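Final report, Chapter 2: Outcomes

The project's central promise was a pipeline that accepts a single protein chain and returns its three-dimensional structure in a standardized token representation, suitable for archiving and comparison. That pipeline is now operational. To close this chapter, we reproduce one record exactly as it appears in the project archive, with the input sequence first and the structure output second.
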Amino acid sequence: MTAPPLSIFIIAKNEADRLPRVIEAVRHLSDDILVVDSGSIDGTQDAARALGARVIEREWPGYGPQKRFAESQCRHDWVLNLDADEVVPADLAAEIAGLFASGEPAAQAYEIRIAEIFPGEAAPHPLAYALAPVRLYRRDRGTYSISPVHDRVDLEPGTRVARLKGTVHHFSVRSIGDQIAKLNAYSDQQVADLAARGKSTSTARVFLEFPIAFLKAYIGRRHAVRGTYGFITAMNFAFYRWLRVAKDFERRNREPKS
């Protein structure tokens, strides 16, 4: 079967354990799978090439700039972005292929639900919270934001947007330790971004951020229905949100007083 005129791009670093599953799930969807790697030392590059992906190595400039670079290197006008821990299940792959069955898809950009799968789960919980960002789009109608921390596609005015029925499976948790290390590093990037934009958080949030963020995750994002890992993930989310505020407080108090 001929693959749709679709490029798939993935940014990665040290994802040799998870990336093959991601590529395997979409190999039949594209003749142009691109991995932009930012310094892996675990064989991620070789794992990607072994499955037929193109690999470009590039230093890490931040999420938005790296994804914008990756989309610019794609060969087709239509692109699908996946992270290196996001798997497209068979029903969603068939839905994407079906968009191109009669030519050009009806919309110009498509939102796709992304739901986390916690350790011990084979599929997203029926009540799992899911984001629905634009991930499938024409490159002439949208491009990734240049923000180093905000992962979003900025669309041209008037772009026709639709939402797919399927859900990407997000295997985000290798281990609790790995998750905390990632959130710690991400909070550093967010504080640097605040400083670069001349922004800051209020001191009051040092005291309020953790309980509010915990309730947002545990109740608002329905982690409460997902057992022990749901509680752990809500705690880690709250700690990350608080850590970002605490680090920003520290940054402001280290600045020379005028």
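Archive annotation: The helical segments are 19-24, 44-50, 63-72, 90-99, 176-196, 204-220, 227-254.
This record, like all others produced under the grant, will remain available to the consortium after the project formally closes.
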